[in-house]
Design a protein that fits this description.
The protein is 33% helix and 8% strand. By secondary structure, it is of the alpha/beta class. The protein has three domains: 1-120, no CATH class; 122-243, E3 ubiquitin-protein ligase SopA (Pectate Lyase C-like), CATH 2.160.20; 250-394, Rossmann fold, CATH 3.40.50.450. The chain has a five-stranded parallel β-sheet with strand order 4-3-5-6-7, with helices on both faces. A hairpin with a 5-residue loop joins strand 1 and strand 2. The chain is globular. The two termini are 19 Å apart.
Length: 395
């Protein structure tokens, strides 16, 4: 992740903006409340403008600075008529963050904005429909903060955390909660209708009255407590999951049947590194595909793995009419099935291979790209694989 690097580079920008605001508000300290509110409004408009900038550092700085509009004790808070400090633009800041997250791909800016939501005074009844909240830590940081009745319709919370959150009656209708941590959360009366709960952790959560109707990947440990209408009927905390990890876990390799010598070297380098890290590798050679129901055989092999590597390789023209090396239709199928099995997915691609399963838009929760470069040594190759390997250890 480049978040720390980019945020560090943007600290000077954030500090400069904040310093200017403090100076302005100090000069206007003698003026009336309306004048101070005008200054805060101007600061808010400036931050929103920076968020829309083409400069990545300004965007990251704005994402950090938006959080200050939630802090009544900061220079962006003012006193109301009763003398109590409040945050006049907290609601607007929350709305802007949610709106941007509706069309933002996963990455540094998305993560900063999503994490920033937890600083809001409250997220009660907040509208997070269709937002990208992958990897976000959403448990409110304010003492009175809550997610009760929040609406996460079709939101993506994969890899995120609502640990210890108060989210009674929250709506997760058709939301994606792959590997989401919901430990010890209050989710009584929550609606998980048709949600994807693959790998979600509900250990210790309060779930009485929650609906799991048509939910996909509902953890098996919750099943004994669901009635005929898929409502959770127990008032006791949800049990923890039990996982039996194989002694030497396997990684599935999806690669084209025909490969050049250079491409074969990339595959061998990957296999060697995985074995050094303690993983076995598993393949499904073309000559082992069954004559019928091939999907079942792919699924059988994937279901015993903890991760998958999909190779996308160029297809040079061959004069002999034989099949060309490259990504075959089956490579795309195996990539999709690996993701459906919730396996950490590493997509290794050569330059020019960028369609279907190898398109940039595929990147996201537990899906990583490794672009093969000429002249890479083993150390560079291993370093590029580290983020994905870290996911294997957690699986």
């Amino acid at each position: 992740m480049l978040v720390a690097t980019n945020v560090g580079a943007s600290i000077s920008i954030v500090s400069g903006v904040v310093a200017a605001l403090v100076a302005t508000l100090g000069v206007m300290g003698y003026q009336n409340r309306r004048a101070r509110l005008s200054v805060v409004r101007g600061a808010f408009n400036d931050v929103v403008a920076a968020l829309a900038s083409d400069d990545t550092r300004q965007q990251l700085a704005a994402a950090v600075l938006l959080r200050r509009f939630f802090d009544s004790s900061s220079e962006l808070g003012i006193r109301d008529l009763t003398g109590r400090r409040r945050t006049p633009y907290a609601g607007e800041a929350l709305s802007v963050m949610a709106a941007v997250l509706r069309g933002l791909p996963s990455g540094d800016l998305q993560k900063l904005l999503a994490d920033g939501l937890a600083y809001a005074p409250t997220l009660e009844r907040a509208d997070f429909q269709r937002t990208n909240l992958q990897g976000a830590y959403l448990s409110p940081r304010q003492h009175d903060g809550t997610l009760e009745h929040a609406d996460f319709y079709r939101a993506d919370l994969s890899g995120g955390s609502l640990k210890n959150a108060r989210a009674a009656n929250a709506v997760f209708y058709q939301a994606r909660l792959r590997d989401t941590v919901l430990r010890n959360a209050d989710l009584r009366g929550a609606n998980f209708y048709d949600a994807d709960l693959t790998g979600a952790n509900f250990a210790g959560a309060q779930l009485e009255g929650a609906s799991f109707a048509l939910a996909r990947g509902t953890p098996s440990e919750l099943e004994p407590f669901l009635d005929s209408e898929r409502h959770y009927v127990s008032g006791a905390p949800a049990p923890a999951a039990t996982h039996d990890r194989p002694t030497r876990p396997a990684v599935f390799l999806s690669l084209p049947s025909h490969r050049t010598a250079i491409q074969e070297g990339v595959c061998d380098r990957t296999t060697t590194l995985l074995r050094q890290e303690g993983f076995e590798t598993l393949r499904l050679p073309r000559n082992e595909y069954p004559p019928s129901d091939a999907f079942s055989e792919v699924y059988r092999r994937l279901s015993g793995c903890v991760g998958a590597v999909v190779f996308g390789m160029r297809q040079p023209q061959r004069a002999d009419g034989e099949p060309s090396p490259g990504a075959t239709p089956w490579t795309h199928v195996e990539a999709g099935m690996a993701y459906a099995c919730n396996l950490p997915l590493l997509i290794v691609r050569e330059s020019g291979v960028n369609s279907g399963a190898f398109d940039d838009s595929v990147a996201g929760h537990r899906t990583f790209f490794l672009d093969v470069q000429d002249g890479w040594d083993d150390e560079s190759f291993a370093s590029a694989m580290r983020p994905w390997l870290a996911q294997l250890v957690q699986s």
